[in-house]
Amino acid sequence: MPGYDYDRILIGGRWTEPASPEKVEVVSPTTEEVVARIPRVTAADVDRAVDAARESWRRRAWRDAPPDERISAVRRLADLLAEHADDLAQRVTSEMGSPITMSKGSQAGAIGLVRSFADAYEKLTLEERRPGPRGPAWILREPVGVVAAISPWNGPLFLSLVKVVPALLTGCSVVAKPAVETPLTGFVLGELLQRAGIPDGVVSILPADRDAGQHLVAHPGIDKVTFTGSTAAGRRIAATCGEHLKRVSLELGGKSAALALDDVEVDVLVPALLAGSFYNSGQACNALTRLVVHRSRHDEVVDALIDGVKGLVVGDPADPKTQIGPMASATQRARVESYIEAGRAEGATVACGGGRPADLPRGWYVEPTVFTGVDNSMRVAQEEIFGPVLSVIPFDGGDEAAVAIANDSDYGLHGAVFTADPERALAVARRVESGTFTINGYLTNTAAPFGGLKASGLGREFGPEGLGEFLEYRTINDPRASS
User: Fold this and answer.
1) Rounded to whole angstroms, how far apart are CA atoms 98 and 185?
2) What domain range includes position 284?
3) pTM for the model
4) Are 141 and 127 a contacting pair, CB within 8 Å?
5) How would DSSP label each residue in 181-247?
6) Is residue 304 part of a domain?
7) Per the structure, how many domains does the chain have?
8) pLDDT at 481 (0 to 100)
């Protein structure tokens, strides 16, 4: 029997019977057994959720509430998330196989994120009186409307909160769609939003599949779509939003490069790569999946890297010692394995890993894998694998050669440079085409804007810039008033 069984979904702030009696089974990536059954969300449920959101928007109670009231509700949500942090972490580990230590760290990060958004919104200027040549104007920043917030399976709670919280703070109504593969934290979030004081009608949470998501994106009652997921899905969503002239922000894929210059400090580089390349078992859009290393340091770096990777603990994600868990689904494991075979076929060398752990016959595991002898034109260097696979690419010459390899990519989400020279590091950081970059480490800073260039997306998350994605500017001219 599953550990969790839900019969209702949150529509307009109320737990409601779904339109269909069908259930979806949630399968553990660790045991391959059913851990939950949830309602199958249909287009009819999406329609009801959007109708509730539009009605709450029409009533204006939430969007016209004083900003302090919305801030207080979000701060209560942060406190409630802290009270339920252990349960939320266990749910993430159960449904997607992330190591429990990472799941707990992610919940702590999520709580900090919510509080950071509240702090940032408190400091925003929402109205400004600006002088002009023919009289003053009032510049208003107002909520964008009804938001569809679509989050992926690889960070179930955190990536929902990245969207839901700034939308609520700014006064929007929200229909959130977590991934159907990882729905369990969404049910808790719905309960906590109710307890935090979010009014009826303002929020719906519909863990749903792609078909329901497409219906939500195309729904005429949606004013803004915010999406995290694959670049392929992002292109489809952008096309739909363009057709309907909806606002859209997209946080998409990556193929981020770590540049190890000729003065790299190996004892700084390797721990950062073990964290940045294999975080969440490699299932992270901002993972450092290409190591571009100066040829003069190549062998030394690779030897140290392989020693580090071989020391990673692969196993039961419920064990606090585990660092690498299973892939989140059988489909994802098959995808990762197909890329490993493609790398071999193109002539790259598997320096370590490359198979399934012999001591873990059950569960969707892939060994952490390092490729050497990689040319940047190979598929393993150009395409997002979304698994524990790192490609090592040597370069010759000066820093510009490394920068050129880093920029030879359709993506531009993240990156890093490793050098003992701070000025050199900053010069390289300025030239790499990525929305986010780290010097001598691997870091996500929730106080600063995060997002990608090129095929890695549109818009920004975190900080005041993340809040700005849910605000519209309006201008009220007043030519008869004195400037």
Assistant:
1) 14
2) 256-445
3) 0.96
4) yes
5) TS-HHHHHHHHHHHHHTPPTTSEEE--B-HHHHHHHHH-TT--EEEEES-HHHHHHHHHHHHHHT-E
6) yes
7) 2
8) 73
pLDDT value, residue 482: 62
Active site residue 251: yes
Cα of 180 vs its chain's centroid, Å: 16
Collect all residues with Cβ–Cβ distance below 8 Å to 368 and sequence separation of at least 6. Answer: 278, 282, 309, 312, 314, 324, 352, 353, 388, 389, 390
CA 389 from centre of chain: 19
Asked if 37 contacts 24 with a C-beta cutoff of 8 angstroms, the reply is yes
DSSP 3-state percent helix, strand, coil across the chain (nearest 5): 40, 20, 35
Q: In whole angstroms, what is the distance from residue 131 CA to residue 41 CA?
A: 51
Domain with residue 279: its CATH number is 3.40.309.10
> 432-448, pLDDT tens digit by residue?
999 999 999 999 899 99
Residue 57: C-alpha distances to residues 17, 172, 174, 331, 449 (Å):
23, 7, 10, 39, 28
Block residue for tokens 């000729």:
262
Give yes or no for a contact between 388 and 411, defined as CB atoms under 8 angstroms apart: no
Q: Residue type at 65?
A: A
3-state secondary structure of 40: coil
Average pLDDT, the chain: 97
Residue 350: helix, strand or coil by DSSP?
strand
Whether 8 contacts 40, CB under 8 Å: no
Radius of gyration of the chain (CA): 23
Q: For residue 346, what are its two tokens? A: 């193109």
CA–CA dist 158, 203 (Å, integer): 17
- Distance between CA 229 and CA 231 in Å, rounded? 7
Residue with token string 């090129």: 454
Q: Are residues 127 and 179 in the same domain?
A: yes
Read off the tokens for 302: 């690779």
Check if the beta carbon of residue 130 is closer than 8 Å to that of residue 470.
no
**352 and 239, same structural domain?**
no
* Residue 1 predicted with pLDDT over 90: no
Cβ density class 81-96: b for 16+ within 10 Å, e for less: bbebbeebbbbbbbbb
Please tell me which residue in 95, 251, 337, 367 is annotated as part of the active site.
251
Comparing C-alpha atoms, which of 90, 109, 79, 94 is closest to residue 33?
Answer: 94
Task: Tell me: do 274 and 169 sit in the same domain.
Answer: no
Residue 327 lies in a domain: yes
Contact 103, 93 (CB under 8 A): yes
**Is residue 167 packed enough to be buried (19+ CB in 10 Å), middle (13-18) or exposed (0-12)?**
buried
Cα(100)–Cα(30) distance, integer angstroms? 12
Q: What is the structure's pLDDT at 479?
A: 85
Q: Tokens for 241?
A: 């939003």
